[in-house]
Design brief:
Layout (H helix, E strand, L loop, with lengths): L1 E6 L2 E4 L4 E9 L4 E9 L6 E6 L5 E3 L7 E6 L4 E6 L8 E9 L5 E3 L3 E6 L1
Parallel strand pairs: 2-11
Antiparallel strand pairs: 1-3, 3-8, 4-5, 4-9, 5-6, 7-8, 9-10, 9-11
């Protein structure tokens, strides 16, 4: 069994910052891509940022220059540093972890980020 747990969400004013963390544990010994996704009310889930096993990163155009994704392989943890937050960043943020051996995706339960104007 694999557990993926996010933390760090909350309420922040526009222009502020938050850092999300996500740790995978359990029966997962080798992780491939890790990523952050978000889903706003009434909208589909969208990718925010991903980071490969080798550290290559990709960002949604809407967050480039404001968000930074990083990972600590020893701790099987991925982070999302979010700066210059905007009200349109308000959403539930989900962590995704891909098992390197099985290519199976695991999701966290989500953490709410609310940006007030």
């Amino acid at each position: 069994q694999v557990h993926v747990v996010e933390s760090g969400g909350g309420l922040v004013q526009a222009g502020g910052s938050l850092t999300l963390s996500c740790t995978a544990s359990g029966d997962i010994f080798d992780i491939n891509t890790m990523g952050w996704y978000r889903q706003a009310p009434g909208k589909q889930r969208e990718v925010v940022a991903t980071i490969s096993r080798g550290g290559r990163t990709n960002y949604a155009d809407s967050v480039k220059g404001r968000f930074t994704i990083s990972r600590d392989n020893a701790k099987t943890t991925v982070y999302l540093q979010m700066n210059l937050l905007k009200p349109e960043d308000t959403a539930v943020y989900y962590c995704n972890v891909e098992d390197y051996r099985t290519e199976y995706d695991y999701w966290g339960q989500g953490t709410q980020v609310t940006v007030s104007s």
